[in-house]
């Protein structure tokens, strides 16, 4: 049973990392667009 729980926790953590990475890229792109408009 503990192995199943650990595996599920690892999968959730990996999915969260991908989501956070994608969100970071979106924020970066938005910041670059604002910076270009400011110039």
Automatic annotation (TrEMBL):
Pfam families: Entericidin. InterPro entries: Entericidin. Residues 1-15 form the signal peptide. Keywords: Cell membrane, Lipoprotein, Membrane, Palmitate, Signal. Belongs to the EcnA/EcnB lipoprotein family. This is Entericidin A/B family lipoprotein.
């Amino acid at each position: 049973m503990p192995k199943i729980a650990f595996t599920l926790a690892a999968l959730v953590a990996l999915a969260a990392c991908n989501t956070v990475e994608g969100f970071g890229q979106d924020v970066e792109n938005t910041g670059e667009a604002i910076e270009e408009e400011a110039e």
